Structures are given as C-alpha cells and as structure tokens.
Amino acid sequence: MPRINITPKTILIQIMVFIVLLAVVEGVFRFMEDSFKKPFVALNLILHPYPYMMFGSRPGDGFTWLNVFTKENVPSKIVFNNYGFAERYDYTMIPDAEYLKKHGKKAGEKIVLITGGSVVHGVGATDNERTIAGRLQHHLNRNSKGGSRYRVVNVGMGSWIAYQQFIGLSLFGLPLDPDWIVVMDGHNDAAVPCAHGGGATNPLGWPKFLNLTQGTGTTSNRILRALTRHSALVRVIAGQAGSKEASNAPGVVVDESDPDPRFRIKMAGLTFKEQDTQLGFYLQAQRNVMALFSHSSVILSSQPVMGDNVISPYYRKAFSPEGTAQDSEELRKALDRYMADHCRDSCKSTISGQLLGYFMGRSALELRELAKAEQAADASRNIFYINTECSIPGENNARMRFFVDNAHLSDAGQDRVGELFAEIILSLESRKKFDFAAFMDRHRP
User: Fold this and answer.
1) What is the DSSP string of 321-383?
2) Would the pTM count as exceeding 0.90?
3) Which of 123, 245, 297, 372 has its CA 20 to 30 A from that of 221?
C-alpha cells in the first residue's frame, strides 16, 4: 500500500477547503432563509418576569399579519405597551395616585374592560383603533344617547387561557373601577390542554417550561436529540456532559409521532377527556371575573371562528337569533356522543378541529346557562351571554372577508364584533332587550 504523505501544508489546505465549503453552505441558506419565513399571524410571545402572567407580547409596533385566504400580507400599525397589551399607554401593577389620576375614570366617563386571547388582543387589525376594543369604543360613543363618554381598555393577550385573562383583569383592570367587563374567548382553552399538549389548567408551553427547569435539555427536534445521544462534543456544548440520554421533567414526554414539532413536548397520558377538565377550569375563571367585579355589568361571549363546527351542525343553529331549545338539545346530544366515543383518544395536534369543535360547543352551552343563573341571582347589574359566531354570515364566501385565518379577524370582523358588543351594552343600559335578529337583519350580505 503506498504511503500517504500528510504534511502541515496538506492539513492547512483541507481545513481551508472545509471552511470555504461551510461558508458556501451558509451563504446559500442565508440567501434562502427569507423564503422559509412567513409573516406571523400569532404574536411573538415572550416570558415575563411576572409569573402571574406567564408570558405576553413584546412591546412596540410594526407587525405584519398574513391573510391565509387571500395570501396577502396585512401591514399593521398596531402599538403594544410595556406589558404587550394593545394600548398606547403603559400599565402598572402598582397603581399609585398619580397613575390613577392620569389613567383612572374621569367625571362623566364609563370604562369598559375587554379581555380574551389573540383575537381581542388585536391580531389581524391594522391599528389600535381597528381592534375590537377600538371599534367597541367607537360604536359606543357614536350611538350613545346619554351624556357619558365611554373608554374601552384592552386587557386581551395572545395565547392566554381564561384564567390568565382573569389574572390580567385583576392586575390592570380592577383599579380602574370599570362599569362593564366584556370577555370573549374559548379557542385557547380548547387548544392548549390536548392539541398543544399542555394538559388541563396549564398555560401554553407549560411542558417546555418544566423541561427547561426540571429536565436536562430535552428538545423536540429529532436531529438535535440524535446528536445529543451520539456526540460528546454536542453534550459538552449543551451542558449535558456525562448524560447520553437527556431526561424529561417528571410527567413530561416527547411524542415524536405528533406531526407538529411545536407540540411534541407534552404532558404524559393526555386524552380527549382533558377537554372536560379544562371546561371546569374555564368556567371557574368566568365565575371569578364576575365575583371580582361584583359591581360591574358583564358580557360573557364565545369567540367566532371561520370554519363550521366539525362535531355538530347544530352549533351555529343553537346560538343564532332563530335558535330553538331543540337545536340546543341536539347540540348537547352530539357532544355527549362524541365524548363517549372518543374520551380515550390520545391527544395530538391532528385532532385539533375536533377538540375545538367539542370545547366551543360545550363551553357555549355552559356559559349561556351560567349567565342566566348569575343574572337571576343578582338583578342589580346586567349579566349577559352572546355567541359572536352568529354575528357573522355563515356562508363561506360572505364570511371569509371577516377573517384573516380560522381564528383571527380582519378589520371588518373586528368592527362587526365591536359593534355587536356596543349595541348589547347600550340596549341593556336603556333597559331594553337586545334584539339579535334585528342586528343581523341590518347586516345581511
């Protein structure tokens, strides 16, 4: 066998060739990187140093949404404050006299607090005045017959479940002595426990948070997991020297069969039954809102989505102006059957449509009954339930212009929901029954 003469010069040349190859590969991917990026519809969430909130949106402005139906980018001038809420002034957790003098209720003013997830937060809106909160304030002040002026304060946050909304209201809204509380939600409480793998009662990303604090660097990325298992260099760089198998936090698993890599790290043993556990937690959050703001009137509502309910066609029927008790009973039966048949199904992102359909249907029925019971128990204030799903045309071609994706609203959708809430408030303050059918008649496509 001929002897290979390896000289320092040869080694140096090989190293230089390797570096050049790396530089070429890096250059190619830098050129291609933008083609992999999409304008984000969900907000960039950041962990807050305040465990009560868990996370929020980044402060600042300059967002771009994606309308998935028209494939168009939607530039937005929306501004988020120091805690990431869609308001032009900063909030504080310790409101002193100076803060309340500046931002508290003024003479002749009524304050409305509105909360929810990313839909209320403002995803899809082109500026603050075109969010649901902005449009609600516009329609209240335009149509009010009294002497009061209305100010609507946005306490909605992307990806928050209902209990986080309750905490946000208590921190930032209670000192303002609001006249009205408007709650619109359901989507996040439907998605986080099972589809996202968080487990009932936990906020978005909880399994990953547990792994960061109690695990040894487990990742859902299959390539990184393989490198960690087989490369000492990678383990040393990652701070996992001596541990060939990264360990999960107690009760956390990595489900590599889930096609969505965002949700492969999840709580162990989750099944469809998780939705009913979450429902109880969700309803408790709504009760806590009404108890905390015991002198305020309250609107509880279910948020709209573009697609029809995959569990039962009776969902929209049951909550439409023409809805009957029989429609509600048919919806309830369909939900009961679905849970009986699927309660043991493993949680995965692939069944997100069924999880959403079940939770929205069940929570809407329960919220409506909760509002009725609370109103009967306390006649000193208004407590009202509305399903905003039915305020938007049901036929797909007419409905599409109100959405930028299945969950989030366009400017037109934000305006429609804001006007709906405004009319409810003004009707109830005038001691009139809100006429949902008349509202829809004025907005026939």
Assistant:
1) TT--HHHHHHHHHHHHHHHHHHTTPBP-GGGHHHHHHHHHHHHHHHHHHHHHHHHHH-TTS-E
2) no
3) 123
CATH of 119-195+273-442, one of 3.30.70.1350, 3.30.1360.20, 3.30.870.10, 3.40.50.1110: 3.40.50.1110
Helix/strand/coil for 44? coil
Token look-up 């290979």 returns 4
Nearest CA to 302 among 384, 381, 372?
384
Q: Can you say whether residue 404 is alpha, beta or left, with left for phi > 0 and alpha for psi between -120 and 50 degrees?
A: alpha
Record the tokens describing residue 241, joined without a space.
């020297």
Q: How far apart are CA 272 and CA 342, in angstroms?
A: 7
Q: Are 178 and 112 contacting, i.e. CB atoms less than 8 angstroms apart?
A: yes
Count how many Cα atoms sit within 13 Å of the Cα of residue 149 in the half-sphere of its side chain.
6
Tell me the pairing of strands 60-67 and 109-116. unpaired
For tokens 């990431």, the residue is 84
From CA 180, how far away is CA 114, in angstroms rounded?
8
Q: Which two tokens stand for residue 312?
A: 């039962």
Q: How many CA atoms lie within 13 A of 112 on its CB side?
A: 26
Distance CA 35, CA 31 (A): 9
Residue whose tokens read 């279910």: 302
Query: 201 — phi, psi (to 5°)?
Result: 80, -5
- Range(s) within the chain of domains with CATH label 3.40.50.1110: 119-195+273-442
pLDDT in tens, the chain (445 residues): 555 566 777 777 777 777 777 677 666 656 655 554 544 444 577 877 666 788 888 898 888 999 999 999 999 999 999 999 999 999 999 999 999 999 999 999 999 999 999 999 999 999 999 999 999 999 999 999 877 899 999 999 999 999 999 999 999 999 999 999 999 999 999 999 999 999 999 999 999 989 888 876 555 555 555 555 556 555 555 555 555 556 788 999 999 899 998 899 999 999 999 999 999 999 999 999 999 999 999 999 999 999 999 999 999 999 999 999 999 999 999 999 999 999 999 999 999 999 999 999 999 999 999 999 999 999 999 999 999 999 999 999 999 999 999 999 999 999 999 999 999 999 999 999 999 999 999 998 7
403: β partners: 409
Q: What is the DSSP string of 256-271?
A: TT-S-GGGSEEETT-B
